[in-house]
């Protein structure tokens, strides 16, 4: 969805208002500022835009991350965009607050803008913390599996490696070094025992909601099935994993 | 700083409410406000009594300060819900409801009961619908198999409610059926 409201930037300025001051702020492509007095058109546009704004996308990625057993590709670009946006809105709020002769209406708008900033911040925080939880839980698996590395940001990957190393160091220092050498390993594969390196359980069932008509997928018993748009299925994660990565289903 | 343990297995109802609050509702403003740029788009201008669309969280914020009336969505009225309840109790399948109806109905009943006609009746109807649907999801548990369970027309809150039990149940079934495959080809040959 593109924000095609650039024309409105040149509209005559009615008086000091939040919008006007936001307008004088440095350029920012993804920041739709429009002062539309046409009425009707605004409502229709706003509805269309609200369908898939960066924030809506983040909410989807956040819910996916919360429900998926495995760690999903990080959304660094999207996060960067939203963080820039938050910074910009906060700056505008600061500017307006410093202004002593702002009206009551102005205060009210500042309050709404701040409320929204807090809502977006909450989702961003929860998204990052969900990833952090998975990174720490599967740190040693991540450190030893190069395929996962590209799904993490540089900071996340560094943290995973450092965390894995610290945990191993701690185990060695506190217990393992006093055990006989043959019992010191942290990556043994013993039959009928859970693996020593915990890995995401891709067999865990998830609720998948098809956003579009999906191509056929293979169920654990070998049969094939297709999800129609809007269909909700409870199925093991590995069945829908590729659809999820392509954004054709969302976890709910 | 990782996610607290209580939130690790599933999202919570308040979080679902936050997600649902991003949906747009129509309001009749009682104050005027210039068009304002938000992160999720620009909303306004508010010109009483011209109707305007905005996210539900903003509308309930305005409503709590008595600065607007919220126009209830087309499905939140006695006739519609009565009709759905009849479907729910006579047909075996789930009837079609907006995906986040439970959250939205709760917010509106909490914040703007005076904008709804007959809120008490609405409350009772929503509760009856919820119970009828709950009974159906419990029945659906018997259809659980390790491959796939299609849940047509189930809503966000209902999914969240059945999640722990269904996920656990299906995981156990998967474990039970995981062993056979290596044996089967031998039986067939």
From TrEMBL, chain A:
SUPFAM superfamilies: GINS helical bundle-like, PriA/YqbF domain. Keywords: DNA replication, Nucleus. One of its GO terms (biological process) is DNA-templated DNA replication. It comes from the Eukaryota. The keyword Hydrolase does not apply. Gene3D superfamilies: 1.20.58.1030. It is found in: Nucleus. Residues 92-172 form the GINS subunit domain. It holds the Pfam family Sld5. GO terms for cellular component: GINS complex. The keyword Secreted does not apply. Belongs to the GINS4/SLD5 family. This is DNA replication complex GINS protein SLD5. It comes from Polyporus arcularius HHB13444.
Automatic annotation (TrEMBL), chain B:
It is found in: Nucleus. Residues 75-174 form the GINS subunit domain. InterPro entries: GINS_A, GINS_bundle-like_dom_sf, GINS_Psf2, PSF2_N. One of its GO terms (biological process) is chromosome segregation. Residues 12-71 form the DNA replication complex GINS protein PSF2 N-terminal domain. It holds the Pfam family PSF2_N. Its main location: nucleus. Keywords: Chromosome partition, DNA replication, Nucleus. It comes from the Eukaryota. GO terms for cellular component: GINS complex. Belongs to the GINS2/PSF2 family. Component of the GINS complex. This is DNA replication complex GINS protein PSF2. It comes from Polyporus arcularius HHB13444. The lineage of its organism: Eukaryota, Fungi, Dikarya, Basidiomycota, Agaricomycotina.
């Amino acid at each position: 969805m593109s924000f095609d409201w650039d024309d409105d930037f040149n509209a005559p300025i009615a008086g000091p208002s939040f919008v006007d001051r936001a307008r004088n702020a440095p350029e920012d492509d993804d920041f739709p500022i429009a002062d539309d007095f046409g009425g009707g058109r605004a409502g229709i546009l706003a509805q269309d835009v609200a369908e898939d704004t960066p924030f809506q996308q983040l909410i989807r990625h956040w819910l996916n991350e919360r429900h998926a057993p495995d760690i999903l590709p990080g959304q660094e670009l999207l996060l960067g965009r939203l963080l820039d946006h938050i910074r910009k809105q906060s700056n505008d709020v600061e500017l307006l607050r410093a202004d002593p002769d702002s009206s009551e209406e102005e205060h009210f708008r500042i309050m709404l803008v701040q409320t929204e900033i807090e809502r977006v911040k909450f989702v961003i925080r929860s998204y990052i913390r969900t990833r952090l939880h998975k990174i720490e839980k599967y740190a040693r698996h991540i450190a030893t599996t190069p395929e996962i590395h590209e799904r993490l940001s540089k900071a996340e990957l560094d943290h995973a490696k450092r965390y894995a190393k610290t945990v191993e160091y701690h185990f060695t220092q506190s217990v393992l070094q006093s055990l006989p050498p043959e019992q010191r390993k942290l990556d043994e594969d013993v039959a009928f025992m859970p693996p020593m390196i915990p890995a995401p359980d891709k067999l865990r069932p998830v609720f998948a909601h098809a956003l579009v008509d999906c191509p056929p997928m293979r169920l654990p018993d070998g049969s094939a099935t297709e999800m129609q748009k809007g269909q909700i299925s409870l199925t093991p994660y590995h069945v829908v994993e590729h659809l999820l990565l392509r954004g054709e289903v969302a976890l709910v | 700083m990782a996610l607290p343990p209580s939130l690790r297995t599933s999202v919570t109802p308040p979080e679902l409410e936050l997600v649902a609050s991003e949906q747009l509702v129509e309001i009749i403003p009682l104050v005027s406000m210039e068009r304002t740029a938000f992160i999720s788009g620009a909303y306004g201008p508010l010109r009483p009594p011209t109707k305007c669309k905005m996210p539900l969280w903003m509308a309930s914020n305005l409503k709590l300060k008595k600065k607007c009336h919220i126009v209830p969505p087309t499905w939140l009225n006695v006739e519609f819900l009565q009709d759905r309840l009849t479907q729910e109790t006579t047909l075996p399948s789930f009837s079609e409801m907006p995906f986040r109806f439970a959250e939205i109905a709760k917010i509106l009943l909490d914040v703007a009961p005076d904008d709804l006609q007959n809120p008490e009746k609405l409350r009772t109807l929503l509760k009856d619908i919820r119970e009828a649907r709950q009974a159906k999801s419990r029945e659906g548990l018997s259809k659980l198999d390790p491959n796939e369970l299609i849940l047509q027309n189930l809503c966000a809150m209902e999914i969240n409610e059945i999640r722990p039990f269904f996920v656990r149940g299906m995981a156990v079934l998967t474990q039970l059926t995981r062993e056979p495959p290596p044996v089967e080809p031998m039986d067939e040959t």
